[in-house]
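Protocol step 4 of 6: structure prediction from sequence.
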Amino acid sequence: MRQESKKFMLITPEDGTDILKGLSAPARLSILTLLHERGPMNVNDIAEFLGLPQSSASTHINMLEKTGLIETDNRKARKGSQKICRAAYDEVVLSFKEAKQTDKDLIEVAMPIGLYSGCDTSAPCGLCSLEGIIGYLDSPDTFHSPERMKAGLLWFTRGYVSYQFPNNARIAAREVKELELLVELSSEVPGTAENWPSDINVSINDQVIAVWTAPGDYGDQRGKFTPEWWKLAGSQYGHLKSFRVTPDGTFVDGMRISDVTLSALELDDHRSIRVKFSVPDRAEYPGGINIFGRGFGNYDQDIVLRLKT
């Protein structure tokens, strides 16, 4: 069943100054709240509802539009045209720990697995935090719960989850020479099965860079970091995979597997780097996916994106 994906904006102190300024005025927060509650509205109606002078409302709306927090379009009215405003994002998340520069040539961003910006999943599916199951098992609606941000393990049978990483190389005006994505993955089957292949598609900026076939869904032993409350009959660990895109092509664990090069990702054209993990219906082996994050599996880490500059 297809779910409507919510839109999330992830910002850091390094790239979110303009956004924070846009949110700094109570009047602008009131405008955003109103658009979320009532849907698209024109400028005059916003001003009247909030008791603002029309000129002040227009100034605040222009600021919100400039920062990308609202979207507008002009529609014909009985007298001229009217400006219709709508909220661009469902949530804005400020992270103080996502971005770090490990050395002068490497920019690294760690993304918690529950902080996806979009999803479309089918059952069997679910999410777990360190404390317990999040929401309801086998309910795609649970993937839209705010509690998902605590997730250390997620799984689904078909569909996708997508993430928006800040493009810190673009912000720093540095040329990217290589991109690497590190994530712990396995296939997904009710229970576990060592021989249960699944074709997992990995996309960056809407470009499929690799299709990796996960061999199985493992429960022969507890994952090194998987909490004790999670039964051994559930998925325990996966494979830590390196997906690396260079000017010469794409490599998985050092082996060249596709002709997709760094230039195909058009990194300089985007403020964010969009990463998607999917299991499409058309896959030869549509065996589901487990994504292991911090606190689960054999590697105590989030999804890591590295940019070599």
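Step 5 (inspection) to follow. DSSP finds five helices and 21 strands in the chain.
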